[in-house]
Design brief:
Blueprint: H1 2-7, H2 9-12, E1 17-21, E2 26-29, H3 31-36, H4 42-52, E3 58-68, E4 71-81, E5 84-91, E6 108-109, H5 111-123, E7 130-134, E8 141-142, H6 145-157, E9 166-172, E10 178-180, E11 183-185, E12 187-193, H7 202-211, E13 215-218, E14 222-228
């Protein structure tokens, strides 16, 4: 596994991978594993790794259903490599009802305009003061407009019940990228920050984002979306 990390294979893997030392300190996480940390404490994954790890330099595949919020896994592989303990989770395929057009097949849309429309609708039913910071250099992006509009609507509804101020920022993450369809793309980061966020819509938000190939992190006071910039 260490060789796979050094070669960059694990970083491109869509399945979460964790590498811990013997005390539970995370030595390495790939991007998919980082996303999961928004849903569970790192110690939960360390305990899984310890439970299923076998002898040194031996990784064993086990089929066991696991779930963390909307993320479902059908199995795991755990093992030891000298003083390190590794854990790899295998994602269950999306249900047919969740699978939509990939970004490569979707039309090109102006996501700032979609955001503006959803914010206007949200303002009509909420007392919250909204501050908006959009990156003027953001290009049009290929995605499912209807799903994205629903995603934003549910995200805003998470902050809509208390009337507290909301900050929305959307910017291009320059110098960074996400792997999609074996290619690395730049991505736009959309962050909505408020307070006392309602988690009622979290499952819906995660499912819509996953079906659109958008990474999502749900915090106690914020929602962060990483949107691939595919023209």
């Amino acid at each position: 596994m260490v060789e796979a990390i050094l070669s960059g294979v694990m970083e491109r893997d869509l399945n979460p991978f964790f590498l811990f030392d013997s005390r539970g300190k995370a030595i390495y996480l790939n991007q998919s594993a980082e996303l999961l940390l928004g849903y569970a404490n790192p110690n939960a994954f360390f305990q899984l790794a310890k439970r299923y790890a076998t002898g040194d330099k031996s990784y064993e595949m086990r089929f066991e259903p696991l779930s963390f919020r909307a993320f479902q896994f059908y199995g795991l592989m755990a093992g030891k490599d000298n003083d390190l303990i590794g854990l790899r989770l295998y994602q269950a395929p999306l249900a047919s009802s969740q699978i939509g057009a990939t970004p490569l097949e979707a039309p090109s849309v102006n996501i700032a305009a979609i955001l503006d429309a959803n914010i206007a609708l949200f303002r009509s039913k909420s007392r919250a003061l909204i501050t908006i910071r959009f990156d003027p250099a953001l290009p049009s992006i290929r995605l499912d407009q209807n799903k994205f509009s629903k995603l934003i609507g549910r995200a805003l509804d998470s902050f809509g019940s208390n009337g507290e101020p909301i900050l929305i920022s959307l910017k291009v993450q320059r110098g960074e990228g996400k792997i999609f369809a074996s290619r690395r793309y730049a991505f736009a980061k959309l962050v909505i920050v408020g307070s006392k966020r309602n988690e009622l819509f979290d499952k819906t938000i995660a499912e819509i984002a996953q079906s659109m190939w958008i990474s999502v992190k749900l915090g106690s006071d914020d929602i962060a979306l990483d949107i691939p910039i595919i023209h």
